[in-house]
Design goal:
The structure is a single chain. The strands form 3 sheets. The chain has a 6-stranded antiparallel β-sheet, sandwiched between helices. Strands 8-10-11-13-12 form a 5-stranded mixed β-sheet, with helices on one face. A two-stranded antiparallel sheet has the order 7-9. β1 (70-79) and β2 form a beta hairpin. It has helices spanning 12-47, 53-68, 108-116, 134-139, 174-243, 249-282, 295-312, 332-349, 382-387, 403-414, and strands spanning 70-79, 84-91, 102-104, 120-122, 146-152, 158-167, 291-293, 316-320, 328-330, 355-363, 368-375, 418-424, 428-436. It has a domain at 288-445: Histidine kinase-like ATPase, C-terminal domain (Heat Shock Protein 90), CATH 3.30.565. The protein has 10 helices and 13 strands. α5 (174-243) runs antiparallel to α6 (249-282), α6 crosses α10 (403-414) and α7 runs parallel beside α8 (332-349).
C-alpha cells in the first residue's frame, strides 16, 4: 500500500537539517556579535590612548583594515572652506603619495557617501559609475571591491569618509559594514573631540600671542625711535668728519646707514611676523593687498636682511633670472615673509660653505611666474617632507615650531598659487612656487 507521507518526512536527515539550520544561523549571529564586540574593544582601546587627530585617524584606519581583513584603505576628512575631501591617512601599496591629496566632496564613491551619509558596498568597482578611477591611476593600485562608511557625529553632517579596499579572503559584505559602522562611529566622535581639544589649545595660544604681540610692539617702539635718533646723530658726526678730510668717512657712513636701515626694517617686520603667526595659529588671514610687485626687489630685501646670518656660516646667497621677471600682482609684505621663511630655514639646514639660490622665470603661456628656492643643505627625511606646509609641520631647528613652512603655504594659497618641493637627504632641497602674474578681483581660495 502506498504511503501518503511526503518522501522528505520519512528522511531522518531532512528533519535533522531543519533543526540544525536555526542553530547555524544562531552560531553565525553569535560569531558576528563577537567580531563586533572585538572591533569596539580594539577601537576604544586605541582611541582612548591618543588625543592627536593624526594618531586617531591612523589607528582607526589600521583597526578597520584589521577587523575586516582588507588590503588597503583611507580616511578622508572634509574641508568646509574648499568643499573637498582630503586624504588624511592612507594605507596600502603606493598609497603614501595620496596623503594630502584633495578631491571635490561630491566626487566618486567617497563623495556620494559623504553627501548621503549612508554607507556603500561595491562588489566590483568596474561596474559602478560612481567609482573615480583617477585615484587608481595615480597610485597604480587596482581597486576591486570596497566599502565606504561616513564618519558621522551623533548629530549633523559627516566629517569625512572611511574607505576599505580589497578583502584578502572572499569579498566585503554586509557583516563587514556592520563592524565598520561601529569603528567609524567611535572614530568620528574621537576625531571631533580631538579637534575641539586642539581648537581650544590654539585659541589659548592665539590669546597669549595677542598679548605678546602687544608687548613686542611696545618694546620695539623705543628701538625704532632710538635707531632714527642714532641715524641723525651719526649723519651729523660723519658730516663733521668729512669736513675735516678724514679718510674712509663715506664708507663708514654707508655701512652704518645700512645697519641702521636693517635694524629699522627688522623691527617693523617683527611686528608683521607676530601678526602672521597669530593668523596662522587661528586659521585666519587678513585679506591680501595685491599691488604691482617686483619679485627681484622682494628677494633682494630678504637677502639683505639675512646676509649677516648667512655670512657667519659662509653661505652665499644668489639670485638668477629674477631681474627679467616683470611686475606681478602680489602682496609684497606676505611675499617677503614667504621668502624670508624659506631662506632662513635653508640657512639653518646648510652645514656651512654652501649656497642658496632664488631662481625664477616667466611663463607667458601659463600666465605665471615660476620661482625656485634651491639650497645645498642636508635634505629632508620622508617624515619631515610629508609634514611640510601643513599644520603637522616638523621643525628640525632647536626650539623651532614648524610654523614657518605653514606660513609659506598660506602665502602661496593667498596668491592662488601652487607649491611643491624636491628633496633628497644629503643633497639639498628645492622648493618650487608658481604664482599667477595677475590676481583676480575675487577673493583667493
Amino acid at each position: 500500500m502506498a504511503s501518503d507521507r511526503s518522501p522528505f518526512s520519512s528522511n531522518p536527515g531532512y528533519s535533522g537539517d531543519r533543526r540544525r539550520a536555526p542553530r547555524r544561523q544562531q552560531d553565525r549571529r553569535l560569531l558576528q556579535r563577537e567580531r563586533e564586540l572585538e572591533a569596539a574593544r580594539l577601537i576604544c582601546q586605541a582611541l582612548s590612548q591618543h588625543i592627536n587627530v593624526d594618531e586617531l585617524v591612523e589607528n582607526a584606519l589600521r583597526i578597520a583594515l584589521e577587523v575586516v581583513d582588507a588590503d588597503a584603505g583611507s580616511v578622508l576628512l572634509a574641508d568646509d572652506k574648499t568643499q573637498q575631501l582630503v586624504f588624511r591617512y592612507v594605507i596600502g601599496e603606493k598609497a603614501e603619495q595620496l596623503r594630502g591629496t584633495a578631491i571635490p566632496w561630491d566626487l566618486g564613491v567617497a563623495g556620494a557617501v559623504f553627501k548621503s551619509g549612508e554607507p556603500a558596498i561595491i562588489g566590483n568597482v568596474a561596474w559602478d559609475i560612481r567609482h573615480f578611477p583617477g585615484i587608481d591611476d595615480t597610485t597604480g593600485y587596482k581597486t576591486q571591491d570596497m566599502i565606504a562608511i561616513p564618519l558621522k557625529r551623533w548629530e549633523g553632517q559627516p566629517i569625512g569618509v572611511l574607505e576599505v579596499l580589497n578583502k584578502r579572503n572572499g569579498q566585503l559584505n554586509k557583516d563587514d559594514i556592520d563592524i565598520l559602522t561601529i569603528v567609524s562611529a567611535l572614530a568620528a566622535q574621537a576625531i571631533e573631540q580631538a579637534r575641539l581639544f586642539e581648537a581650544g589649545k590654539l585659541a589659548e595660544v592665539a590669546r597669549l600671542l595677542g598679548d605678546i604681540g602687544h608687548d613686542i610692539k611696545n618694546l620695539l617702539t623705543p628701538v625704532i625711535t632710538g635707531a632714527e635718533f642714532l641715524q641723525a646723530e651719526l649723519n651729523k658726526l660723519f658730516g663733521s668728519l668729512a669736513a675735516m678730510g678724514i679718510s674712509g668717512t663715506q664708507t663708514s657712513q654707508m655701512l652704518c646707514n645700512r645697519v641702521i636701515g636693517l635694524l629699522q626694517d627688522a623691527a617693523r617686520r617683527i611686528q608683521d611676523r607676530v601678526r602672521e603667526i597669530g593668523d596662522c595659529i587661528k586659521g585666519l588671514s587678513t585679506p591680501p593687498h595685491f599691488a604691482p610687485c617686483r619679485v627681484a626687489t622682494v628677494a633682494d630685501d630678504v637677502m639683505k636682511t639675512l646676509h649677516m646670518l648667512a655670512d657667519e656660516k659662509k653661505i652665499s646667497l644668489r639670485t638668477e633670472g629674477l631681474d627679467a621677471i616683470p611686475l606681478i600682482s602680489a602682496d609684497e609684505r606676505r611675499l617677503f615673509n614667504a621668502f624670508y621663511n624659506l631662506i632662513h630655514n635653508a640657512i639653518a639646514a646648510i652645514p656651512g660653505g654652501g649656497s642658496i639660490t632664488v631662481r625664477g622665470h616667466i611663463d607667458l603661456a601659463d600666465e605665471a611666474v615660476h620661482l625656485s628656492v634651491i639650497d645645498t643643505g642636508r635634505g629632508m627625511s620622508p617624515e619631515v617632507r610629508d609634514s611640510l606646509f601643513t599644520d603637522r609641520a616638523i621643525s628640525r631647528k632647536a626650539g623651532g615650531t614648524g610654523l614657518g613652512t605653514k606660513i609659506v603655504k598660506d602665502v602661496v594659497d593667498a596668491h592662488n598659487g601652487q607649491i611643491s618641493l624636491e628633496t633628497q637627504e644629503g643633497k639639498g632641497t628645492t622648493v618650487h612656487i608658481r604664482l599667477p602674474l595677475m590676481q583676480s578681483v575675487a577673493s583667493p581660495r
